[in-house]
Amino acid sequence: LSALEFRGVGARLLWMARAGTIRIDTPEAILAETMGVLARKFGRQGYRLRFGQEALRKLARVVEPTQTIAIADNPDDNRILEWAVEAGSDFIVTNDKDLLGIWRYAGIPIIRAEAFLQREA
Fold it and tell me: Is pTM, for the whole model, over 0.70?
């Protein structure tokens, strides 16, 4: 969301995915939630939402989890862990403080976007 509205670090990650230097994995639910927030909070409508969703689908690999994980207090955080495991992710890149507090799950480091970009530099 921040990449689409505010540029900055998130936008750099999207550009890296577009260039093929990183792979972004996401479930369909995250794409739908992102479009909903863009509509509710930022007033995006119609073709802008469809275009945005299709552009994200081209950049990201849509992965749906097949297992249930219940280690985080927040069910939404558990969903993030589920799709990261399903995707075989190398990192979970987030600014969510609760996920960052887990630090690592199933061998997948959980790090801030800024830290990820420093690793890739």
Answer: yes
